[in-house]
Amino acid sequence: REQDYTTDKSKIMMALSHMAGDQVDEWKNNLAEFWQNQQRTNPNWNFPSWNDFILNLQGRWGPIDLVTAASTKLIALQYDPGDRIDSFIVKFENLAMKAGINEDAALLPMFRLKLPAPMRMKI
Question: φ, ψ for residue 118 (rounded to 5)?
Answer without folding.
Answer: -60, -35
